Amino acid sequence: MPSAFTLYTVKDHWHPVLRARAIENQCFVVAAGQFGQHNAKRWTYGKSVVVDPWGIVLAQAPDRESLALAEVDLDALAKIRADLPALRQRLEGVTEPA
Questions:
Q1: Nearest to 33 by CA among 5, 8, 62
Q2: For residue 71, what are the contacts with CB-CB under 8 A and spacing of at least 6?
Q3: In the prediction, which pLDDT does 90 show?
Q4: What pLDDT, on the 0 to 100 scale, is given for residue 98?
Q5: Is residue 67 part of a domain?
Q6: Domain total for the chain?
Q7: What are phi and psi of 35, to 5 degrees?
Q8: Are 10 and 21 spatial neighbours (Cβ–Cβ below 8 Å)?
Q9: Are 50 and 29 in contact (CB under 8 A)?
Q10: Which of 17, 31, 41, 67 is the most buried (most CB within 10 A)?
Q11: Domain coverage including residue 50
């Protein structure tokens, strides 16, 4: 998930939103947060992160140009999906009303 959150929104919203997406979709989330000054009034704050399907932050980049690396355990992913079968409870072919 690429992003360019501003300083004011990243500190309060970025990680909670990513952790929620990982949990509700039972997937790993790898989120690259753009960092730097883009003009006189706009800074983006980075905080790139890797989150596991349980919502645990596995790696986080510091507040500068950098990398965040984490090992993705596909066996753990399979176990979480087996233990919490929320994705199997979806209704196939159901669409939102127009």
A1: 5
A2: 58
A3: 65
A4: 54
A5: yes
A6: 1
A7: -125, 140
A8: no
A9: yes
A10: 31
A11: 2-89
